[in-house]
Specification:
- This protein is mainly beta.
- The chain has one helix and 14 strands.
- The longest helix is centred in the N-terminal third of the chain and has 16 residues, at 2-17.
């Protein structure tokens, strides 16, 4: 089982070793944990994530696009998910997120950075099909990044989500408040080939009856790797994969696949 995975990792490592002798290291390409790095001026990033839980009960694809606004201090982005959940057997939109992130302190190359994010949640999904919350909501996340050395980085998250009128598949509604904590460690084996170890804890509220939401905490430990390639015209392509192992009964193991395109959208004079 592990033979093909090991062969893939070795092959990716060899490809990374053949890359440019002094490329810029990968930074904003984690999977479950959010880094405190805003986009550089004039550079846009498109991120595709795919998640499949063990047993194939849940399939989720999401597209995120991040744009700098007037420099590195401010960033706007949006996330659009497509979801399929058993036993509903229907594919469609989940809830859309509109995000604003502010670079509170730190800059590219800094050892410590912080960039709080505020998100508006739009109820684009259909709870009757297992997709979305059925409620407008707000989410706050506080990403903090600390880089103790050029070959090692850590990222830390804390946040919450409030859905004032969340809906379940039967149409019952209640206020749902969830909390999240997470951390990750990134080893830059090569500037363009990294190993990641991420862990995330989520205390999620689910509507179970009119006016009632029960809570369930889940913990996931997710090792993975990412590999980048610099193409012409300033395009950087980053791929990655991880396998999240559930540490309790409230969640399932999951396979995570990642693909990112980062490129200039206007000419930058240097």
């Amino acid at each position: 089982m592990f033979g093909p995975v090991l062969a893939l990792v070795v092959a990716v490592g060899r490809l990374a070793a053949q890359a440019d002798s002094a490329p810029e290291p990968l930074t904003d390409n984690s999977f479950l944990i959010e880094e405190a790095y805003n986009q550089d001026p004039g550079v846009v990033q498109e991120i595709s994530n795919f998640t499949r839980t063990s047993g194939g009960n849940d399939l989720v694809y999401s597209l995120t696009q991040e744009w700098p606004v007037g420099g590195v201090r401010n960033q706007l982005s949006y996330t659009i998910p497509l979801e399929w959940h058993a036993p509903f057997d229907k594919t469609g939109l989940g809830d859309i997120q509109l995000n604003y992130r502010y670079q509170l302190f730190g800059a590219p190359g800094s050892r410590a950075l912080m960039a709080p994010r505020l998100t508006a949640i739009l109820p684009a999904g259909h709870p009757s099909s297992g997709r979305g919350s059925g409620s407008f909501g707000v989410q706050m996340n506080l990403p903090f990044s600390f880089n103790p050395s050029p070959r090692f980085a850590t990222h830390w998250n804390a946040g919450f989500t409030v859905l004032p009128s969340a809906e379940d598949a039967t149409g019952s509604r209640a206020t749902a408040v969830s909390f999240n904590l997470g951390a990750s460690a990134v080893w830059l084996v090569r500037p363009l080939f990294n190993f990641l170890l991420e862990t995330i804890w989520v205390d999620a509220a689910q509507v179970v009856a009119p006016g009632r939401a029960d809570r369930a905490a889940s913990v996931l430990l997710s090792p993975g790797f990412r590999w980048g390639f610099n193409a012409r015209g300033g395009l950087q392509i980053v791929t990655g994969a991880a396998y999240g192992v559930s540490l309790n009964d409230a969640s399932r193991d999951q396979l995570f696949l990642y693909l990112s395109f980062e490129h200039p959208f206007r000419h930058i004079d240097r």
